[in-house]
Amino acid sequence: MNIDIEDTKFLLNKNILITGASRGIGKCLALNFSKYGANTILLSKDEKLLDQVYDEIKSKYKTNPMIITCDLYNLDENYCQEITNSIQKTYGNLDALINNAAIVEKLSTIENYDLETWEKVIKVNLTSSFLLSRFLLPILKISEIPRIIFTSSGVAKKGSSFWGAYSISKGGIKILAEILKDEVETTSKLKIFNFDPKATRTNMRAHAFPAEDPLQLKKPDELIKYYLWMLSEESSGSENNYIEYED
């Protein structure tokens, strides 16, 4: 990864949509991308927290962020078209979509997994990523270095007991990223990446592993160099679309 992370103009005037931007890795990406000059489009269902991230960006950086308040569980085709229209009207194009938002909800055996939770996790983690990717493709393809970056997990590669719908959703994301790679990379400039950040200090990690000491985990800031590389011209020649954080 031969990129200059000290270059504060690395993402100058890039327009980047981040789901789950109100906390955790998403918030970290929003602040750091703004530091590098990007116009960050902040999507989350928590309007109060989004406002705080927006205000912090406006007070620190000379960029043009946008807030999209959206519960991904309720995302449908009409709202996706509204999001696309709003981004195109404000910025003209989109340079990157970071499908970051995800929920675990519960750890349970399949025998005891209720349908309501199953459907919620699949909709938030997988279906919303499909919908946003599908509708935003036209305004991504007109970018000079367009990217879609999905967020993976160790349970995407091999199913493990109790991970239920979360593991299924991440496995689905892996396949979705591979399908998109085959469909768009040979006919456009668009690159598709699926990034596994591995164990990171977030609220979702704490929920899934309550006995774990969070101080032993890396902070989200340590992931930034990977995202900058994926968003860079250097990554355009990469044949590998599954990227993992290296300890």
Please tell me about this protein's structure.
This protein is globular. The protein has 247 residues and is an alpha/beta fold. It has a seven-stranded parallel β-sheet, with helices on both faces. The chain starts with 14 loop residues before the first strand and ends with a strand. Helix content is 41%, strand content 13%. The longest helix is centred in the middle third of the chain and has 26 residues, at 115-140. The chain has one domain: Rossmann fold. The chain contains seven helices and seven strands, in the order βαβαβαβαβαβααβ. α1 (24-35) runs parallel beside α2 and α3 (77-91) packs parallel to α4.
CATH architecture: 3-Layer(aba) Sandwich
Q: Classify the beta-strand content into a percent band.
A: 5-15%
Number of strands: 7
Helical residue percent band: 40-55%
Estimate the global geometry from the Cα principal axes.
Answer: globular
Please compute the radius of gyration using only Cα atoms. 17 Å
What's the end-to-end separation, in Å? 15 Å
CATH homologous superfamily - what is it?
NAD(P)-binding Rossmann-like Domain
The major beta sheet can be summarized as:
7 strands, parallel
